[in-house]
Amino acid sequence: MKPVNLKRLAEELNLSIATVSRALQDSHEVSAATKERVRALAAALHYEPNAYASSLRRNQSKTIGVVIPKVTNHFFSLAINGIEEAARQSNYHVLIYLTHDDHAREVAIIQHLKGGRVDGILLSVASGTEDIAHIQSLAPANIPVVFFDRVCAEIATANVTTNDYESGYQATEHLLAAGCHHIAHLLISNNLSIGRNRQQGYLDALQAHGLPPDADLVLPDTTNRAHNEELLRELLQRRPDIDGIFASVEHLAVSAYHVCRELGRRIPEDVKIVGFSNLESVSLFDPPLTTITQPAHDIGREAARILLRALEKKRPILPSQSVVLNSELVQRRSSEQG
Amino acid sequence: MKPVNLKRLAEELNLSIATVSRALQDSHEVSAATKERVRALAAALHYEPNAYASSLRRNQSKTIGVVIPKVTNHFFSLAINGIEEAARQSNYHVLIYLTHDDHAREVAIIQHLKGGRVDGILLSVASGTEDIAHIQSLAPANIPVVFFDRVCAEIATANVTTNDYESGYQATEHLLAAGCHHIAHLLISNNLSIGRNRQQGYLDALQAHGLPPDADLVLPDTTNRAHNEELLRELLQRRPDIDGIFASVEHLAVSAYHVCRELGRRIPEDVKIVGFSNLESVSLFDPPLTTITQPAHDIGREAARILLRALEKKRPILPSQSVVLNSELVQRRSSEQG
DNA sequence: TTTATTTACGTAAACGTTTTCAGTAAATGG
DNA sequence: CCATTTACTGAAAACGTTTACGTAAATAAA
Lengths: 338, 338
Known about the structure:
CATH architecture of the largest domain in chain A: 3-Layer(aba) Sandwich
CATH topology of the largest domain in chain A: Rossmann fold
Oligomer: homodimer
Largest sheet of chain A: 6 strands, parallel
Number of domains of chain A: 3
CATH class of the largest domain in chain A: Alpha Beta
C-alpha cells in the first residue's frame, strides 16, 4: 500500500506538493476550488501530516515536556490534568518524564530534551537537586522553562506556585489555636523551595505566638517510608509533649496517622494533625484530616498556559514572574479542639 | 551562536557529516582514533542529536503514546509509573493523552497519532467508546497497540488485564460469607470489558450461592458524582434490605461511604462494603475499606514491555495474547462480620 | 494601449539526520 | 608483482514537510 503523504496527494490531483501543502494550511495563495479538491482527497485517504517532517522543517515540535518527581503524588496527577487541558486547547502534545526525585535522572532528562524534542518545559524540580547547571543550560538552547510548585529561585523565569509560606504559617497557627503547644513539622525537604517556605511559615507562626523554635521537632522526609515512620515513632516516644503535627506533604500525614495509631496516641485528643493533601478521600479518614489543599489543577493549567503563550512568540523569552495561587485550609476533625 | 549539529561538528573536525554520524553511532566503519575525536568534540559542545531529523529519516520516533481516560484515577497514575519505567529502560519516550472517557476525544487522539508521532500505543479505552473503527484503523497504519485494563476484545492484539471476573466473584463471595444477603453492585460501566467481567463475577457468585440476580441492585456509573450519589441514596432508601455494596471502581466506593454516612447506615454493621481501589490510604478510612487492589504498576510496566518488545522487530505485529495479573482482596474492617 | 498589480500555481531549497554507494589507500594473498 | 580484500572516508540521496522565489495569466490602473 502506497503511503499517503503530500507527494501522493499531489500526484493524484495533478498538483505540485507545494500547492497541496498550502491548500491544507488554508493559504490564501490557493484558489477555493483547488482547496476543496485537496481537502476532499486528503479526507478520503485519511491523510495525516507527518509530525516529524513538519517539526524538522518548522523547527518546532508542538510538544511540551513535563518533568516531575512522580505521578503517584496526587498533586502531580491533578497538575497533569490541568497541563493536558491547556496543551490540548493549543494543539500541543505532552511528554511526561519522571525524575523520582533523583538529581542524576533530572540532569539526563533535561540534557536530552535539549535535542529539540520539546519546545518548552514545565518543571517541578527533584528534591535531590542542588546543582542547577543543567537547568541553566536551557536558556542558551532557547528552550523556555516554567517552574511549578517546586521552583528554582536562581533561575529568572516564570514560576507558578501556591502560597507555601502563608500555608505553613496558617497551618501552624491553626494548631496553636486548637490548643497545641509542641508542634512537630514533618518537612517535605529543606532542599526544596516549597519545603523552605513552609518551614519558614511554621517557624514564624511559632515565634509570633511566643514559642521558641525547636530543631528537634522538625523531621525532614527521608524518601523511605519505613524509615520516616521509624524516626517519627522515635520522636513521639522521646517527646511525649508533642501535641500537634504539621505534615508538609501528604504521605507524611498518612505516616503520622499510622504511627499515632500504633503508639495509641488519639487524634485529635492527644495529637492534632494538619497536612498538605489533595486527596479527596481524606474526609473519610478516621478522623477526617484537616488539610491544606492546593489548587493543583489550576497550578498545572496556569503554568502550561504561561509557557504556551510564550511559545506563540517567535523568540520565547519568559519574563521573571511569579503567579501564586492560594491553597485552602480545610478544617476537619483531626485538628478539632479537645 | 552557531547551532551545534552534525554539520558543525564535521566542519570543525574536517570530516564529512557521514563520518561524524557514524562515529557517534559507534559504527565499525570508523577508526577508533576518529571516533575519539568526534566524541570529544561532541561532548565539549554538548551536541544533542535532533530527534525529529532522526525520527524522520529512520521512520521511527522512539516514542509511545499512552491514551487513558484520566490520570486522577490512582490506578492510571500507578500504571504510568510502570510504563515510564519500562520506556526509560528502552530509551523510549512517553506521550500522554487523556480521553476523559469521551469517545470523540479518543477518536481524535488516535487519528492524530497515525501521523507517525508515536511508534506504538498503550490504550485503555474510554467508557464512552462503542464504535471501534478508529482503533481498527491503526493496524493498516502499522501502529501496534496494546490494551491494558480496559481492553477491546474485538481487536486481535495483546492485552494486559487483571482477573476482573474472579475479583468480582471473590468480592461478592466475600460479602456473602460476611453475612450479606442483598448486595448492590456499583458498576463502573457495562460498556467496558472490566465492567462486564466484574458484573459477571458478581452475578455468578450470587447464583452459586442460590441468590437470584436483581437488576434493581445494579447501579452503573453516571460519570457525575452528585448524580451517582443521588441514585445511590435513592436506592438505599428504597431498598432498606441492602446490606452489602460491591463498588467496582474507587470513586463509587467513596461515594458509598458518603451516602451511608448521610443516611446513618453504619459500616460494616448495617452495610458492608468492598471496593476496587489502589489508594494506599484506604487503611485510614473510617472504617478501613476492604479492597480489591490491582497490580497497577505491574500492569503498566508489562503492557509497555510487550509493546516495546514488538517495536524492536522491524515489522511490529503483536500476536493476540492476554496477560492476566491477579488482583488481591485485602480484607479490612468495612466488610467485617457484625 | 501599456504598465502595475494580483492571483494561482510550480520549482527547488532547506531542516538534520541516516544510509547507500563509491572511492581511495593500505593490507593481504597467491 | 598483480589481484583482491579490508579499512576508512566522502558524496549524495532520502525521509516529508514548509517556504522563498519565480512565473504565467488575469485583472486593474494609467
